[in-house]
Amino acid sequence: MNWRSLPVLFLGLGALWIGTHSATCDKDGACDEILKAYQTEQIMRSILDQLPDVGSGVTSPAQLMDPQLKKFYQDLQEDIAEKYHGDSSVEISFLDAEDPFAGGDPSQLVAAFRLKNDIKNMVVAEALLHVAISLPSFEQHTVHKVHVQVYEKKTDMSLGDLVTTDTFSIKGSKRLSIQLPGDAVKRWFTDGKIGGLFVSAIVKDHNAAVHPQQSNSKVDNMILQVVTRDPRYGPTKPSRTRRSASPVCSESDPSQGCCLYNLEISFEKVGWGWVLAPHRYNAFMCKGDCKLNAHHFLSASSHSTVMREFSKKTYEKDLRHLGFCCHPVDFDYIPIVYMNRDGKTVVKRIEGMVARRCACS
């Protein structure tokens, strides 16, 4: 991905977002074009500010486009969006397993993880180890019961304590998600006494768990998912209740006035291959003639105040262009899983990505 291509890509999404989130104020569309240009610039800057690690550098297309890996992250993103929606105190990290010997000792099966953030003063709310299980071709169509054990490996690579154990029934090669105790995960990243993890998943006397010494494929690599919470926010629990967008109109049942409509945004269509999940989402849009229902939707928001002042300065010599524009005044965020400039998988809460309520100003 080239940094110089980003403004063009952002412009493409900005045009989708703003072009449909505002409505024509009068027949010549002057207000519509001004709002579109002004908001596009603001949204481009906002997204760049929220994704500071997307920039120069090349990310392998094979890593970005692998359908198996994308499907895995899309499923995780959906669960994260539901489970932790509204909980601003959590931070979610995906850590790729590394070979601490960099290929120097393939006999040592160990998965090492590096956490960028300091979690000494954080609470580990949830931790999942995602492990690829590889079965030979002649075993792909048989159901197997797999007993999985996760062990610590000390810094001298001797086997440490048993962390957790679980049993799964699988058919064919797949990725298993194993719940890990949060206190153990926190200890790994704070006391410096653990060199990594060893996973045993025995199928017919063979360890089917794929360690980084056995495969260079990102699809098969172990992934540690860590959810941390800032204790200063108190013991808040994740919420599964999504704020509904209301009222919502549709093309089959339209409103002539200012109203909220569905708008599907596809990251692939705008060329954002570095976004792993979601594949697409509903951004919603505001459109309609404010002359018909402006008295119901007159906005006293800070956005409206700014835009009125902006319009006065822009059209101070030609006030006939002024009118009420239909635009969103309430927004929601979505969590995005993306590949940064270093090829690392990152989860980021992107604000202002979903319109929830319309108003006229």
Automatic annotation (TrEMBL):
Where does this protein reside within or beyond the cell? Answer: Secreted
Q: Name the major location.
A: secreted
Region: Disordered; residue ranges are: 230-254
Say which species the protein is native to: Caenorhabditis remanei (Caenorhabditis vulgaris)
What lineage is this protein's organism placed in?
Eukaryota, Metazoa, Ecdysozoa, Nematoda, Chromadorea
- Residue ranges occupied by any TGF-beta family profile domain in the UniProt entry: 240-361
Q: Where is the signal peptide?
A: 1-22
Q: Which domain of life is it from?
A: Eukaryota
- SUPFAM superfamilies assigned to the protein according to its UniProt record, in alphabetical order: Cystine-knot cytokines (SSF57501)
Family annotation (Gene3D superfamilies): Cystine-knot cytokines (2.10.90.10)
Q: Which GO terms describe its molecular function?
A: cytokine activity; growth factor activity
Query: Can you say what this protein is called?
Result: TGF-beta family profile domain-containing protein
Gene Ontology CC: one annotated term? extracellular space
List, alphabetically, the PROSITE patterns matched: TGF_BETA_1 (PS00250), TGF_BETA_2 (PS51362)
PANTHER family, alphabetized: DAUER LARVA DEVELOPMENT REGULATORY GROWTH FACTOR DAF-7 (PTHR11848:SF303), TGF-BETA FAMILY (PTHR11848)
Which keywords appear in this protein's UniProt record, sorted alphabetically?
Disulfide bond, Glycoprotein, Growth factor, Secreted, Signal
Which family does the UniProt entry place this protein in?
Belongs to the TGF-beta family.
